[in-house]
Amino acid sequence: xxxxxxxxxxxxxxxxxxxxxxxxxxxxxxxxxxxxxxxxxxxxxxxxxxxxxxxxxxxxxxxxxxxxxxxxxxxxxxxxxxxxxxxxxxxxxxxxxxxxxxxxxxxxxxxxxxxxxxxxxxxxxxxxxxxxxxxxxxxxxxxxxxxxxxxxxxxxxxxxxxxxxxxxxxxxxxxxxxxxxxxxxxxxxxxxxxxxxxxxxxxxxxxxxxxxxxxxxxxxxxxxxxxxxxxxxxxxxxxxxxxxxxxxxxxxxxxxxxxxxxxxxxxxxxxxxxxxxxxxxxxxxxxxxxxxxxxxxxxxxxxxxxxxxxxxxxxxxxxxxxxxxxxxxxxxxxxxxxxxxxxxxxxxxxxxxxxxxxxxxxxxxxxxxxxxxxxxxxxxxxxxxxxxxxxxxxxxxxxxxxxxxxxxxxxxxxxxxxxxxxxxxxxxxxxxxxxxxxxxxxxxxxxxxxxxxxxxxxxxxxxxxxxxxxxxxxxxxxxxxxxxxxxxxxxxxxxxxxxxxxxxxxxxxxxxxxxxxxxxxxxxxxxxxxxxxx
Length: 534
Known about the structure:
Helices cover 63% and strands 15% of the residues. It is α+β, with helices and mostly antiparallel strands. The radius of gyration is 64 Å and the shape is elongated.
């Protein structure tokens, strides 16, 4: 939580003042302690000197001699009393006004301060007694009193100086800053940009005067800026209204354009479907021509038999001569039966081709049905090959490696349309490369059908045509993207193939190398969830 400047100032002021007073008191205590130690050392030295004088002057045989020695001491004025004891503790001599038997607490305090000292008196190597000296405490007390009074006076002086300085700082800095802060808060809260600071309040402080002056300038600039913002806001509202009107009109136009584009796209898709049918038209015609020829030949054989041979056999039955012609009759009947089988077989073949053609041209939404994928791939490969040969005589090496993958749930016309587009692209690529390289190039297409991972049917269509670069390969499934010249491609073929494979829950991928090969791979699931419970 943020604190006010005044609180921070007072707290730091008290902290710094406490530190200064603490340091000063500590210095005074150290000084007093040092003085006491010095006095104590001096008193001990004096006491030892007195003990030495007494021990050398007398042998404790005459009390008068001891007293006489004490009376002749040069520094008698520095002590209060001197008492000489025998080694048994008996008072031998006493000099001065002090108590001969000081109280224990006084003696202990005196020893602590150095005013009471005791020292042994030695004569030869024998302790003959000891001496007790009680020094005057005036000097020590005067020193302690002086230090105490000086400390108190200095502390009071520091407190007064701090108080006066604090009051001056509060008047010169804190109070104006607080006032300035309150005004800024008021301006921020009310958003009133007409409040300015009275500069006369801060004439005595250069920094605050300049700060207040700059604040007033800022308020004036903000006021002008606010007016400009209001004007800009009004202009912006007008512009937004105009833009909204323009956007609405553009949206209507765009919706109409999208509607036209959808319609145009549907037409293009229909044209692409028709183009697929057109591609197969020549192949279908070639495929229908063979069964029709066989049907016509078989029908002609039957017609000749009925018109020429049958009446002869009927007459021989009436004449009773049929037995000698029965062998010929059986051969003719077998031929007629075979001709009928050929008619039925080729009629079914033509019917199948017509159904595929109708499926390709059907415009309604088809349904999934069980389809033999091997037959479907083989059928559309043949139709596409014959269609290619009808458009351009080109010797193509065909490698067909298709195995039986069973019957799958498919939309046969959609898969057929996808295969037709892939075959047509392969033939176109090989045709363009043949135009460029001539007889040195040998077109080759490989179509394979297999089962992969027991889950998918894999259809691979590989040609050794022009191939594609990476940029083209990345866009090959995009709608309306084509590498064919204008008029030869809409760019919807591979896009439709991609959508068809996706609608069968499959995947479509491409591998290619420029100038060498292109391979499209379709993966179709063997079982579609919801359609096949196998």
